[in-house]
Amino acid sequence: MSIFGIILLLLVAAIVAVGLFVWKSYNRLVTLRNRYQNSYSQIDVQLQRRYDLIPNLVETAKGYMAHERETLEAVIAARNQAMSSSRAAAAAPGDPQAMQQAMTAEAGLTGMLSRLMVVSEDYPDLKADQSMQTVMEELRTTENKISFARQAFNDGVTLYNTSREVFPNNLVANTFNFSFAELWQEVTAEARRTPRVSFS
Phi/psi at 135 (nearest 5 deg)? Predict the structure, then answer.
C-alpha cells in the first residue's frame, strides 16, 4: 500500500472517529435533556393538583372567614399567577427566564397560603372543619410530592448541565445549541431558613 493510501486510510479513520464521537455526544445530550424535561412534567402534574386544591381551600374558608375577603382574593390571585408562570415553564423546562418567573410566582403563592394559614388560626371552627382538614392534608401530601419531583428535576438538570459543560462534549453542545438549563431553587429568604420549633 502506498503512503498516499495509508494517509487516506488514516484520514478516513479520523473522520469516522470524530463522527462517532459527535454522534454519541449529541445523542447523550438529547437523552439527558429529555430526562430533565420529563422530570419537569412530573412537577407540573403536582403543581396542577395543588392549583386544583386551592379553590376548595378558599371555598371552605369563605364560610368561616367572612372578614378576610382580601386574604382569600389574594390567595386566588397568587394561584392564577403561579398557574400562568407554571404553564410558561412547562413549555420550556430549564429555560432560565421561564424558570425564574415560575419560581417567583410559586414563592408568592406559598407566601399567600402561609398567610391564609396564619389568619385561619383565629378561626377555631375552621380549623376543626372536616373539609378544611381534608384539603389541608391533601395539600401537605401534594407539597411533599412537589418537593420530590423538584429534587428529581434538579438532579436531571445537574447531570445535563455537567455533561454539556465538560470537554469535549462542550464542543458538541455549543455547536448544536444545547443551552444551559436552570435549576428549580427556592427564591425566598424564608425558604432558606431552618424552621424554628418551640414546645413551650
Answer: -65, -40
| Domain-located, residue 10 | no
Report the alpha-carbon angle 12-17-23, nearest 5.
125
Residue that has been written with the C-alpha cell 389574594 in this structure: 74
**What does residue 183 show for φ and ψ, rounded to 5 degrees?**
-75, 160
Q: Are 149 and 43 in contact (CB under 8 A)?
A: yes
CATH number at residue 83: 1.20.1440.20
Structural contact between residues 184 and 43, judged by C-beta atoms closer than 8 angstroms? yes
* Domain presence at residue 199: no
Split the chain (200 residues) into runs of 10 and give each run's mean pLDDT: 88 94 95 94 93 90 80 92 94 92 93 87 82 88 93 95 94 94 76 43
**CB 49, CB 77: distance < 8 Å:** no
Is the alpha carbon torsion for 61, 67, 68, 72 positive or negative?
positive
* Environment class of 79 (CB within 10 Å of its CB; exposed 0-12, middle 13-18, buried 19+): buried
State the pLDDT at residue 150: 94
